[in-house]
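User: Let's play a game. I give you a shape written as tokens, and you guess the letters that built it. Ready? Here's round one.
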């Protein structure tokens, strides 16, 4: 069963000291996907065919660049660029009137539709999402079946805006009746209580810049900016 297969990384995320275990799950998949793409796999025909077709989003191509495998990235960018040139030349020859098919709904703008498609596609995103959806399935599976996980869930530090919304919207697919009501109350409380905690921390962080508080303790606010960014924007930054 997929839920049992993915139970270890999901449990690990909810055991960790983090402001959003779902962000942690996503980040682990993102790191693995980038390592895969920038490893020897970029020379495999099936991988290259897919990267040629989809390319990479702005965020992930930056992370790939940071991996220092500039030759591997250059090879993928080169063949992807060739693919874009070929497809664009075909569409330009059709002119502004769409001939239907893939771009039927974008009459008169086949080129524009293709450019939008490129802007929304990413090999790394696709690879992450294929497994991330299974992780979310597993969260609800464990919540229903595993008392230990349910306790870890209840004792977590809540979630970022994005993943609170994701769990809130996903819950009716897995839960119903009293169980759904209880889950909703739980995540509502986890989200707001912990967001207020972080808000208090970031307030004290700003207050520390007042000369009157120069000698006061930092309390839990030294990393408040990092944690607030994670809560609000699902973004990981370092001190």
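Assistant: Ready! My guess for every position:
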């Amino acid at each position: 069963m997929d839920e049992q297969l993915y139970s270890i990384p999901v449990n690990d995320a909810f055991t960790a000291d983090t402001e959003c275990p779902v962000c942690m799950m996503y980040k682990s998949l993102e790191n693995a996907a980038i390592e895969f793409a920038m490893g020897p796999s970029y020379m495999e025909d099936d991988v290259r065919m897919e990267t040629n077709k989809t390319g990479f989003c702005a965020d992930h191509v930056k992370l790939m660049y940071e991996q220092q495998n500039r030759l591997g990235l250059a090879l993928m960018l080169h063949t992807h660029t060739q693919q874009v040139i070929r497809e664009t030349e075909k569409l330009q020859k059709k002119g502004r009137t769409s001939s239907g098919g893939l771009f039927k709904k974008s009459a008169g703008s086949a080129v524009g539709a293709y450019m939008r498609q490129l802007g929304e596609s990413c090999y790394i995103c696709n690879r992450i999402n294929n497994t991330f959806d299974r992780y979310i399935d597993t969260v609800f599976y464990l919540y229903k079946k595993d008392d230990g996980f349910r306790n870890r869930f209840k004792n977590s530090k809540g979630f970022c805006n994005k993943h609170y919304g994701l769990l809130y919207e996903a819950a009716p697919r897995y839960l119903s009746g009293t169980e759904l009501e209880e889950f909703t109350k739980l995540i509502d409380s986890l989200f707001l209580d912990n967001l207020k905690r972080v808000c208090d921390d970031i307030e004290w962080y700003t207050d520390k810049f007042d000369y009157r508080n120069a000698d006061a303790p930092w309390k839990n606010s030294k990393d408040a900016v990092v944690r607030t960014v994670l809560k609000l924007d699902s973004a990981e930054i370092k001190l």
